[in-house]
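Form 7-S
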Amino acid sequence: MRGTFLKPIVSLTSNQTLSKMKKLILTCTAIMCAACAMADVSGSWWGKLSLGVRGSLRIVLNIETDADGSMTATMQSPDQSERLIPATVDFCDADSIAVTIDAVGASYRARVAGGRMSGTFSQAGREYPLEMLPGDGAYARPQTPQPPFDYAVEEVTFSNPAAGNTLAGTLCIPRGADCNTPVLLLVTGSGLQNRDEELAGHRPFAVIADHLARNGIASLRYDDRGFGESTGNGSSATTSDFASDAAAAVTWLRSLDRFGSVGVLGHSEGGTIAVMLAGNPEYGANPDFIISLAGGLIPGREILVSQNRRMLMLSGCTADIADTYCAALENIWGGNGAPVDISKLPDGLRANLLVIPMHTSKSPWTKAFLELDPAKYISAIECPVMALNGTLDCQIDAGENLSALDRGLPASTPRHIVTYDGLNHLFQPAITGMPDEYSPISTTIAPEVLDDITLWIRSLSAR
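Output:
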């Protein structure tokens, strides 16, 4: 979901919540002052910040010492993005270092000895042990495309008049393309993301666009509103607002008169948006075909409860704890169940339940998503539909969502529904499917998924 692969949903409330939390403890640019006697800390240091049931984040600190002894550095979390925020070094002596990140109310205090930093990362009254070792902690990303490309790449902008936004994106056009070449719009998941849907060091939409172009299919991917080079307010936007942006992109692609059929591929919340565009003529998009990659295809409230239950179980919680927590969630989000006794829940889960009502009331996206039911759109879809999911997806349950789609589509609507054994929400081969596995896995998208997408689109052209 948006925040995700999803801007995946990896928190116990929603992906958007964790996406915001991660951004608070993530990337930093530091202007560092020198102290008299300093440890030799020049170079790159990295460590993994454990967030309990919410997974973990790699933190990288790059430090340079100038000839005059002054120090500069950058800190970032490559599992989230490469964005940088300011920080200050309070001191750096022979065996200690202290960094304060005022912009996010965080700090890092560590002892430096034996070739490592051992200390505590603090934020919002919470403390997280963080040990850092020399190195940048980088994982291999062999599928990320590198220039020169065997296809044309155009940086473009288009507008959404309904919202007053200008969206910036990348148009990839295969060699020899003409007015019969299909073009695919790529729509990201929940949480504000760039056009590559960058997450955990992976750039899945760049990988998809590259594969499509090398197989004769054009594509457009774009930064979400209010993110990257796109304008507008993304922080208060709902799924319907993001669908409006996607509809504007489809309209713009058709206006070019450069391509043939226009399809929409969405990942996670983007898959929900693809269904909305195909099933609601009021958006004015009317795509010729759609592809849902782990799209949310059951009511939003059910999605959030389901993913909470599955991630709690994968995190080692008992079935009783997971059921109690999820029953409490359902009541908070408008359920009519009996009062739930949460006294036996772990402290962290009880604390989470206390803040969810406040978060929900302040989040237009969450309030709207809880009321969203894709069924009304699915029942009106007439164009061909492809829907893919993995058995290890702990954010969008494959069985629940794909079966809802298959049941809900009109009998006459062409469909191709595939479940991949052992793939997670990002369509990576995984062990548990939990979000903390996204970074260590070098595969961005399983090759068989990429091949199936291109073969299906080609089959439509052959009809």
